[in-house]
Amino acid sequence: MATTTFLYELLSNANKTLVYKVDAGMKPIILRFDLSLTKGRDTRIYMQGEDKRWVLLLEDNYYERVDNSPNKMQQNKIIGGELTKELVEQQNEQMKMQRRNEKMSFYFDCLSKIL
Question: What pTM did the predictor assign?
Answer without folding.
Answer: 0.79
